[in-house]
Each structure stands twice: as structure tokens, then as C-alpha cells.
């Protein structure tokens, strides 16, 4: 069988992607995975956020829809689900989904503490009960609120085996100076911030610093809360998109994010089973190399 | 909240429009056919306020007091607060409004429905908006009929209807009954505006009309 030019190119890109991805492909579902630097544990590069999408109150029809999204996420090989006490009913809806889906060993539970320093332990226990998990894998200080006291508490909990990883979060480009200072001074496992093909400030300092310090990176709001995908919806994908296995704008955006070598996992949120499958497909096959990433930025900027 | 000035109104929106509108559908389904009672109570209050007969104000105040605590408890506390934690701080204001209305119903001449002129007509227009216009307005903008917001069941028409009835009244305690419904109209208008809903102007316009009418009446009286 003759080997076409496209196949050769795909092969070359796959080699480039393998160099970008330090961890091996996630065994069960063919998902690309990265290692958490502080432990070596592997994590599929696409997770599941819950901001707005899982805040459905006690509406059982919508709670079941969320459970279906979770089921599709786990079926596709996903692990990390992220939430916060700030997200309304999202934590209890996740708990509802987990109870409905049964015991999920693959779950990586990532939550946050979002209260005064003194109230942290009480809020964490309440959050844990909402999720219905024996302990959280990761607890992050939400938007750096009372971060010193919370980090002290969380570090103690980690030492006692009550939580596996500790991190801090921000979003939409807020407080990057302080975040950078904390990343330099504190023994963090994870850091979470916003990064995508149009919000690329993190490429200047935060992502290189995370790589240098061995801190895993969670990327939130990859689609700018839907604004980016809505903006691009009417535009054509570039003709070379298929070279990196991209068939939709959502995959284009996610591929750009997860192909940065310092990014551990991106956490798009969705209410749609089709969208969660589409997002997970972005974590399969090849990733763009540095040249292709620059091309992706130029293409979006020109639109 | 750290660096609160960097937050936009949409950053405070914790829920999707779909979930917001579903709340009214669930509320309507859970209390049906109580909508007929609250609508009938609204009609009766509008009629009593128009007749300006002595003693009517007590029944209007008591009925409104019940509706405010009902909406605050069944909708705000048990439904809206589950998707918006800030509402758990607003719901007690509905109880406060109910208590104030009860007091207004007990204290002699706290509310007197004997007004005439522009203020009274504006009040009637607003009360009619809450009672008749609001339930049909939203379906006209594309919402399902099951999601219609009905006076005494949903907070916006209840607040607008109450502002209207209060504008039709005079009395010693009338002014103390305005802040909570006016505040709710502003909160709801801001929420709908943040959601990008075309109907966001309605609760804001209701407050603007009420304030303009009161200002006009004050200027005329001076």
C-alpha cells in the first residue's frame, strides 16, 4: 500500500506530539495523558468542569442530564471533575451523578475552598458530603481567597492523608502577579488559571514557571464560557485542521490548550453528551507541534 | 471578594438561562392550581383598591402579606436559592415585607385607598402589568406557557403588582412598604440584563415609572 504525503505528515506530527506529551497515552481509552509532576500519576488531558453547567438546583430532569454527561465523560476515559462551593448546586449534582453511576475508581475529584480561612475545614467537610466521596483528590484555594491560612490547613490535611493534592486557582487573568509569587514560594501540586488561543498571557510567565517548578496546570474556561465558540461558530475551520485531527472549533480550541507542554488538563464544562464526547475526542490522536500552534494563533487572530 | 472591581456582572451569574426559566415551570407545576387563587386574589385586590371603600385596605395588606411570604418561601428559598446562593440573603427580605404588610393591615390608616389622579392611575397600570401583562409577556418573547410568571407565584409580577397597589394608596406606613419590592425589581432587572434577556427592561421600567410618579406627586404637593 503506498504511503501518502498526508500519512507521512501525520506520522511526523505524531512523533512531535509524543515529544510534547511526557506521559504515555491513557491506557484504557486511548486518551492522551500527562503526569502530575509531584507524584507521577497520569491524568487524561481533558477533564470536566461544572461552572454554571451543573448548577441545576433540584431539577431532577436536569440532574439526570448532568449524570448522563458524567457517564459519557467516564465512558470516554475521563477522570478529573472540578467544582467549587461557589458554583451553587454543582457539588450536590455531581454527588447525585456519582451515586447514580456507582463506584467510580477512575474519578479524580477536584474541589475548592471558597470561604474565610477559619471556616475552611467546615466548608470542606460539607463539600465532601455533597460529593459523597471519602476524600478529595485535590483541594484548591478558590481565587486565592485567604490563601495563606487555607494553604496551611490543606498542607496539614495532605500530611494527614485527608487530601492527596493541594492547589490554588484564579480565572480570567486575575491576580497573576500574586499567583506567580505563590507558585514561587509555596509547595503546590496544582495551579489553575484561564488559558486559550485568545487569552495567551499565561504563556509568558505562568506556564513556564509551572513547568520549572513542577506544578501541574489545570486550564479553566477554555471556551471563554462559550463566548469563544459562539464567536467562531460562523467561521470556517482552516483546511489544515484535519492534519491535527480537528473537526470542530471546540476541538481546535482544546487541542491548542492541551498541546502546551506545561498544561496537565483542561476542564471544559458542558450540558451536552455530544459535546463531552467531542471534547474528549480532542484528547485523542495527534497534537499540534510548536509550528502548528503558531499557525493556529495566526488563523484565529486573522478572523 | 478579592479585586471585586475586576468582576463583571456576568461573572456573578452562576446559572444558565435554561435553568432559570425551568424554575418557573417547576414552580407552576408544583403549586397548580393555586395560580387561580393568587390571580383571583390579585383581581379582588385591584377591585377593592379601586372602590376605595373603608376597611378594604386591611384585606389588601393581609393578602399581600401572605403572597410575599408564600413567594419568598416556596420560590426564593426552596427554588432560586438552590442555584444562586445570594438569594438566601434576599429571601428574608420577603419575610420582612410580609411582616411590614401585616403591620400595615393592623395599624389604623397605615394604608388608605382613597387616592385619585396620576399616581393612582400609574399604580393601576403597574398592578395590571403584574397581574395581566406579565404572564403573557414572557411567552410572547418565546418562553413556554408553562414558564409563565404569575402574580403571587413568581417574584417579579408580585413585586410589580405590589408597587402598583401601593402607588394607589396613601397612609402613614405606605413609604415603608416600597423598598423591598423596588429592590427586588432592580435585582431581577439586573439579573435578566446579565442573562441577555429582552424582558430585563420591564422590572426596571416599573421602578422608573413608580419613582417618576412619586416625584411628580411630590413636586405638585410642594
TrEMBL record, chain A:
<dbReference type="InterPro" id="IPR006311">
    <property type="entry name" value="TAT_signal"/>
</dbReference>
<dbReference type="InterPro" id="IPR053135">
    <property type="entry name" value="AKR2_Oxidoreductase"/>
</dbReference>
<dbReference type="InterPro" id="IPR023210">
    <property type="entry name" value="NADP_OxRdtase_dom"/>
</dbReference>
<dbReference type="Pfam" id="PF00248">
    <property type="entry name" value="Aldo_ket_red"/>
</dbReference>
<keyword id="KW-0732">Signal</keyword>
<protein>
    <submittedName>
        <fullName>Aldo/keto reductase</fullName>
    </submittedName>
</protein>
<dbReference type="InterPro" id="IPR036812">
    <property type="entry name" value="NAD(P)_OxRdtase_dom_sf"/>
</dbReference>
<feature type="signal peptide">
    <location>
        <begin position="1"/>
        <end position="29"/>
    </location>
</feature>
<feature type="domain" description="NADP-dependent oxidoreductase">
    <location>
        <begin position="46"/>
        <end position="292"/>
    </location>
</feature>
From TrEMBL, chain B:
<feature type="transmembrane region" description="Helical">
    <location>
        <begin position="118"/>
        <end position="137"/>
    </location>
</feature>
<feature type="transmembrane region" description="Helical">
    <location>
        <begin position="200"/>
        <end position="219"/>
    </location>
</feature>
<feature type="transmembrane region" description="Helical">
    <location>
        <begin position="60"/>
        <end position="80"/>
    </location>
</feature>
<dbReference type="Pfam" id="PF19540">
    <property type="entry name" value="DUF6064"/>
</dbReference>
<protein>
    <recommendedName>
        <fullName>MFS transporter permease</fullName>
    </recommendedName>
</protein>
<feature type="transmembrane region" description="Helical">
    <location>
        <begin position="30"/>
        <end position="48"/>
    </location>
</feature>
<feature type="transmembrane region" description="Helical">
    <location>
        <begin position="175"/>
        <end position="194"/>
    </location>
</feature>
<feature type="transmembrane region" description="Helical">
    <location>
        <begin position="86"/>
        <end position="106"/>
    </location>
</feature>
<dbReference type="InterPro" id="IPR045708">
    <property type="entry name" value="DUF6064"/>
</dbReference>
<keyword id="KW-0472">Membrane</keyword>
<keyword id="KW-0812">Transmembrane</keyword>
<keyword id="KW-1133">Transmembrane helix</keyword>
